[in-house]
């Protein structure tokens, strides 16, 4: 049975530095849906994603995940959440493989040989044991994006996942999105590019810049 | 009690509560301050050992008591703010901190001015003065942490956490300083033996304590009102209030 | 009254400097805190009023544009 | 996979990451130690080399130097993780943040505190301490430095989001270090008079136990504030 309304945003308000970013914003996301958040710079896309991920608190309103408020039991929500922000959480001093392994252990996933294979699948052959800081911006992002293949989270929250990726990378990523949606997951992402693949369950949310 | 208290989590109600409470505190402050100072300075008898210099006690002791009292009420507000996530409690923490810091500063200055004729030095590493000095550092820490943040919402919560950490440490610091003091100086002359105090001196002292408490109350309320206005400035009720010229 | 004359009162039995220093600095700190708190409040109200007027002007300008 | 097993996995993973990183950039381990050594060298130069005087003030100097060199590493404790986004990943992990924080504090202690404890006999010799006081110095550093790491981490967590948090952090943290300083130096003092100093050590131990339980909670809530 499918759980409907995986994620529910209930009249969320956020003000930053005396400026109201959005007021009484409500929407919901079902399993199998992908939502693209659009809007000009400074409209509050990142702030919204950070509120939904539970890093920031909304001024008003609540976020519900599978019918439960996320602030009530954050660790349970976190087990179902995959967040990749502007800052990807990849350490420049460690190698790509070490980074992936560390992430897996911290998130309670099993570490196996699959991580190594995935790095080569994402075009990082021969770069697995090089410190990440020596890689290019796009390659560094791929190191973070490997997580998309290695987690069992239901909800993905991705802030500008396509930044610095080449066309092939973007395509690979969207194929993975489709797989995740087919397995009953949900995706929330911001991007300035349009998605090239056609998703039937695509919703868009436009945030306006408010004064 | 919870049902009665809960409406005050709303900013507008809290603001009104401040307004209703303020006159009482103001009257207590003005009356007690005038009576206490005149009585303390002119009518209380001179101490047979310390002569007239002991009159400093009428402001030193109240400010010292209130500096601790303000810190504990700040910490209580901080706990409420963190546990129940009530924004007004956070604002109260920020409102009390400068008042408490001022009380601590008064206690330090008067302590030094009293120490000079009594011990012959402006500053003596006496246990009580040292604790007061550390308390001042704790207050300044909370204040500078609050002002270092650009986002005032995070600033408030950070200040609350620091206040709670401080209040857990305060008894340990106090105890360790007392202990350090006895270790290094032997039993020093205690400035004032409160048990032996005569009622002709006790009454003005109590009145002064009430005056200082009232003052802390009044200024905290004024500052709390400011903080509430500051954070609710875009709300219609603030606009209506300011429009009425209040 | 413990003191015979004003001079005696001011001298405080030889401790006048210390006593008046304490009371003076105490009064100064209390007054400074009190008035700075009041001033903060009136400044804030002033700012809110200015903001309201600014918004009204913007509103008016928009209305005129439409006309 | 049992829950207990994965808590352990989280702890070791966070711990080993920080320690590995420190070993890759040796300066992180070496610099606080050098600082410690230089501060201790400065005192005899400033106040004169009489052995009796040095012996008298040695506990204070060693401990003040220890406080200051612990502060050096603290600013870096959460800074890198904050800047590269690892902190967000730790928060968004299914495990409680306080556990990861505990691992990070232990890592900090391994990097800065432990080398100081190991080097303490040498410093004690420089300051003319006798063997009794030397034992006390090592013991107080062993119990006291983790305490410094715990308390300091609270300050570091509160200021990690600020551009110039370093100085502010020392302002916040140093007053909280006072009890540690008092009990540790007095333990060394007492021991050099050939008296029992178990009481002071017990108090330090009790404070460490309390910090072990309470500090991770404070640190993790401070980190959540800094990240938001």
Automatic annotation (TrEMBL), chain B:
Record GO terms (molecular function): heme binding; heme transmembrane transporter activity
Keywords associated with the record: Cell inner membrane, Cell membrane, Cytochrome c-type biogenesis, Membrane, Transmembrane, Transmembrane helix, Transport
Highest taxon, organism lineage: Bacteria
Transmembrane segments: 21-44, 56-84, 91-113, 133-149, 161-181, 201-224
UniProt xrefs under Pfam families: Cytochrom_C_asm (PF01578)
Positions of the Cytochrome c assembly protein domain: 8-184
InterPro entries: Cyt_c_assembly (IPR002541), Cyt_c_biogenesis_CcmC (IPR003557), Cyt_c_biogenesis_CcsA/CcmC (IPR045062)
Protein topology in the membrane: Multi-pass membrane protein
One annotated GO biological process: cytochrome complex assembly
Location in the cell: Cell inner membrane; Membrane
GO CC, one annotated term: plasma membrane
Chief location bin: membrane
Function: Required for the export of heme to the periplasm for the biogenesis of c-type cytochromes.
Family to which the UniProt record says this protein belongs: Belongs to the CcmC/CycZ/HelC family.
Record PANTHER family: CYTOCHROME B_B6 PROTEIN-RELATED, HEME EXPORTER PROTEIN C
Protein name per Swiss-Prot or TrEMBL: Heme exporter protein C
TrEMBL record, chain C:
InterPro entries according to UniProt: Haem_export_protD_CcmD (IPR007078), Heme_exporter_D (IPR052075)
Keyword Cell membrane in record: yes
Membrane protein topology class: Single-pass membrane protein
GO biological processes: cytochrome c biosynthetic process; cytochrome complex assembly; heme transport
Coarse class of the protein's main subcellular location: membrane
The keyword Phosphoprotein is annotated on this UniProt entry: no
Transmembrane feature ranges: 15-35
GO CC list: plasma membrane
Record localization: Cell inner membrane
Keywords, comma-separated and alphabetical: Cell inner membrane, Cell membrane, Cytochrome c-type biogenesis, Membrane, Transmembrane, Transmembrane helix, Transport
First and last residue of the signal peptide: none
Family: Belongs to the CcmD/CycX/HelD family.
Stored NCBIfam families: cytochro_ccmD
Described function: Required for the export of heme to the periplasm for the biogenesis of c-type cytochromes.
Name of this chain's protein: Heme exporter protein D
Annotated organism of origin: Pseudoalteromonas amylolytica
From TrEMBL, chain D:
Sequence intervals crossing the membrane: 29-48, 60-78, 106-126, 138-161, 167-189, 201-223
GO molecular function, one term: heme transmembrane transporter activity
Main location (coarse class): membrane
Cellular localisation: Cell inner membrane
Record key words, sorted: Cell inner membrane, Cell membrane, Cytochrome c-type biogenesis, Membrane, Transmembrane, Transmembrane helix, Transport
UniProt topology in membrane: Multi-pass membrane protein
One Pfam family this sequence matches: CcmB
InterPro entries per UniProt: Cyt_c_biogenesis_CcmB, Cyt_c_CcmB_bac
GO CC field: plasma membrane
Family of the protein in this entry: Belongs to the CcmB/CycW/HelB family.
Its biological purpose: Required for the export of heme to the periplasm for the biogenesis of c-type cytochromes.
Protein name: Heme exporter protein B
Lineage: Bacteria, Pseudomonadati, Pseudomonadota, Gammaproteobacteria, Alteromonadales
């Amino acid at each position: 049975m499918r759980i409907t309304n995986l994620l529910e945003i209930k009249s969320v308000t956020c003000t930053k530095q005396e400026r109201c970013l959005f007021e009484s914003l409500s929407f919901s996301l079902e399993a199998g849906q992908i939502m693209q958040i659009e809007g000009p710079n400074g409209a509050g896309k990142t702030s919204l994603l950070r509120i939904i991920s539970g890093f920031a608190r909304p001024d008003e309103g609540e976020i519900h995940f599978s019918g439960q408020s996320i602030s009530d039991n954050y660790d349970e929500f976190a087990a179902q959440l995959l967040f990749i922000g502007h800052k990807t959480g990849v350490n420049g001093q460690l190698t790509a493989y070490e980074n992936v392994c560390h992430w897996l252990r911290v998130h309670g996933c099993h570490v196996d040989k699959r991580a190594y294979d995935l790095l080569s699948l994402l075009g990082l052959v021969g770069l697995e044991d090089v410190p990440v800081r020596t890689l290019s911006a796009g390659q560094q992002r791929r190191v973070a994006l490997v997580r998309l293949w290695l987690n069992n989270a239901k909800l993905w929250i991705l802030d500008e996942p396509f930044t610095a990726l080449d066309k092939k990378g973007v395509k690979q990523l969207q194929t993975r999105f489709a797989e995740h949606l087919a397995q009953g997951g949900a995706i929330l992402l911001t991007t300035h590019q349009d998605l090239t693949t056609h998703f039937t369950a695509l919703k868009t949310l436009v945030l306006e810049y408010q004064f | 009690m919870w049902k009665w208290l809960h409406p005050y989590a709303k900013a507008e109600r809290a603001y009104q509560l401040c307004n209703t409470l303020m006159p009482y505190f103001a009257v207590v402050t003005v009356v007690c301050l005038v009576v206490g100072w005149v009585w303390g300075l002119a009518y209380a008898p001179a101490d047979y050992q310390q002569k007239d210099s002991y009159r400093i006690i009428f402001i030193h002791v109240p400010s010292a008591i209130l500096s601790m009292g303000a810190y504990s009420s700040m910490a209580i507000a901080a706990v409420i703010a963190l546990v129940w996530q009530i924004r007004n409690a956070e604002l109260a923490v920020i409102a009390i901190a400068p008042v408490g810091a001022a009380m601590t500063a008064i206690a330090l200055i008067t302590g030094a001015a009293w120490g000079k004729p009594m011990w012959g030095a402006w500053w003596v590493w006496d246990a009580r003065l040292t604790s007061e000095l550390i308390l001042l550092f704790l207050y300044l820490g909370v204040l500078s942490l609050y002002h270092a943040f650009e986002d005032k919402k995070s600033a408030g919560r950070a200040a609350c956490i620091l206040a709670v950490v401080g209040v857990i440490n305060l008894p340990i610091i106090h105890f360790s300083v007392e202990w350090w003091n006895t270790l290094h100086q032997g039993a020093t002359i205690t400035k004032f033996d409160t048990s032996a105090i005569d009622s002709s001196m006790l009454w003005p002292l109590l009145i002064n304590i009430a005056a200082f408490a009232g003052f802390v109350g009044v200024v905290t309320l004024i500052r709390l009102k400011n903080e509430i206005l500051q954070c609710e400035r875009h709300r219609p009720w603030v606009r209506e209030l300011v429009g009425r010229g209040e | 009254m413990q003191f015979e004359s004003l001079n005696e009162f001011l001298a405080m039995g030889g401790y006048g400097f210390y006593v008046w220093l304490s009371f003076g600095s105490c009064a100064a700190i209390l007054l400074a805190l009190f008035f700075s708190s009041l001033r903060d409040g009136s400044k804030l109200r002033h700012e809110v009023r200015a903001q309201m007027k600014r918004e009204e002007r913007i509103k008016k300008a928009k209305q005129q544009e439409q006309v | 996979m049992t829950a207990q097993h994965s808590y352990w996995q989280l702890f070791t993973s966070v711990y080993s990451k920080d320690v590995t990183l420190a070993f890759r950039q040796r300066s992180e381990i070496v610099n606080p130690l050098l600082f410690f050594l230089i501060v201790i060298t400065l005192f005899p130069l400033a106040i004169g080399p009489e052995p009796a005087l040095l012996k008298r003030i040695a506990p204070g100097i060693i401990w003040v130097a220890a406080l200051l060199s612990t502060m050096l590493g603290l600013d870096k404790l959460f800074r890198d993780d904050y800047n590269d986004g690892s902190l967000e990943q730790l928060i968004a992990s299914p495990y409680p943040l306080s556990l990861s924080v505990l691992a990070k504090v232990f890592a900090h202690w391994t990097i800065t505190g432990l080398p100081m404890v190991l080097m303490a006999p040498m410093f004690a010799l420089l300051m003319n301490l006798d063997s009794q006081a030397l034992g006390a110095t090592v013991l107080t550093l062993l119990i006291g430095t983790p305490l410094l790491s715990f308390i300091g981490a609270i300050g570091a967590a509160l200021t990690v989001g600020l551009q110039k948090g370093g100085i502010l952090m020392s302002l916040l943290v140093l007053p909280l270090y006072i009890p540690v300083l008092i009990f540790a130096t007095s333990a060394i003092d007492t021991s050099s008079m050939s008296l029992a100093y178990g009481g002071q050590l017990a108090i330090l131990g009790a404070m460490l136990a309390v910090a072990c339980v309470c500090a991770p909670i404070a640190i993790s809530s401070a980190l959540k504030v800094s990240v938001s």
